[in-house]
């Protein structure tokens, strides 16, 4: 709504897409990566045939860290910065926590480097990745959050399709 009460053009288009918390609405496709406690899949959100990433965290492995993980998923859902991936939603499926996220089509910087730049990125590219990463960190710090686990080579790249 504009200040004069008029409805802003494009406001509806800018609204974040909504996702369900029903696992049956997601079809897991291939595995795209894994971390210490999670496996990440490319998946389809069936109601809109939309590609997403689903991070499946093994709750049994997390032991006492469940509160921390749920807090992280909640923070991720409140993120609003182009350089920080946000979670659309998260929910428990049997022994896993599923976090639904945008799918980063180009994968991580490490992946890109391995397949296309085996000698390593050139300096201007590294500088650009660093700058964008620092913008993301600055945003998180302004929100009162500390990342604690930055691994530059696993930064994710998105390509708008
Ligand atoms: N949204 C996404 N889109 C595409 N690929 C992703 C996405 N999220 C994660 N991945 C892939 O999955 C890998 C593992 O991601 P994850 O977030 O579990 O681990 P991490 O933070 O890199 O590792 P750890 O949890 O061990 O610190 C990433 O390195 C990346 O290759």
UniProtKB/TrEMBL annotation:
<keyword id="KW-0547">Nucleotide-binding</keyword>
<dbReference type="GO" id="GO:0004672">
    <property type="term" value="F:protein kinase activity"/>
</dbReference>
<feature type="binding site">
    <location>
        <position position="55"/>
    </location>
    <ligand>
        <name>ATP</name>
    </ligand>
</feature>
<dbReference type="InterPro" id="IPR011009">
    <property type="entry name" value="Kinase-like_dom_sf"/>
</dbReference>
<feature type="coiled-coil region">
    <location>
        <begin position="52"/>
        <end position="79"/>
    </location>
</feature>
<dbReference type="InterPro" id="IPR017441">
    <property type="entry name" value="Protein_kinase_ATP_BS"/>
</dbReference>
<keyword id="KW-0067">ATP-binding</keyword>
<dbReference type="GO" id="GO:0043539">
    <property type="term" value="F:protein serine/threonine kinase activator activity"/>
</dbReference>
<dbReference type="Pfam" id="PF00069">
    <property type="entry name" value="Pkinase"/>
</dbReference>
<feature type="domain" description="Protein kinase">
    <location>
        <begin position="26"/>
        <end position="161"/>
    </location>
</feature>
<comment type="similarity">
    <text>Belongs to the protein kinase superfamily. STE Ser/Thr protein kinase family. STE20 subfamily.</text>
</comment>
<protein>
    <recommendedName>
        <fullName>Protein kinase domain-containing protein</fullName>
    </recommendedName>
</protein>
<dbReference type="InterPro" id="IPR047173">
    <property type="entry name" value="STRAD_A/B-like"/>
</dbReference>
<dbReference type="InterPro" id="IPR000719">
    <property type="entry name" value="Prot_kinase_dom"/>
</dbReference>
<keyword id="KW-0175">Coiled coil</keyword>
<dbReference type="GO" id="GO:0005524">
    <property type="term" value="F:ATP binding"/>
</dbReference>
């Amino acid at each position: 709504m504009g200040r004069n009460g008029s409805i802003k053009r494009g406001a509806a288009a800018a609204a974040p897409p909504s996702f369900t918390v029903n696992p049956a609405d997601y079809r897991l496709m291939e595995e795209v990566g894994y971390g210490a406690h999670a496996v990440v899949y490319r998946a389809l959100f069936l109601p809109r045939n939309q590609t997403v990433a689903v991070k499946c965290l093994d709750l049994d492995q997390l032991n006492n860290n469940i509160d921390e993980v749920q807090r992280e998923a909640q923070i991720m859902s409140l993120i609003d910065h182009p350089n920080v991936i946000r979670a659309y939603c998260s929910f428990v499926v049997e022994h896993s926590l599923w976090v639904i996220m945008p799918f980063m089509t180009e994968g991580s910087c490490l992946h890109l480097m391995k397949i296309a730049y085996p000698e390593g990125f050139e300096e201007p590219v590294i500088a650009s990745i660093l700058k964008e990463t620092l913008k993301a960190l600055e945003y998180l710090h302004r929100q009162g959050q500390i990342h604690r686990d930055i691994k530059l080579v696993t930064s994710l790249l998105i390509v708008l399709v």
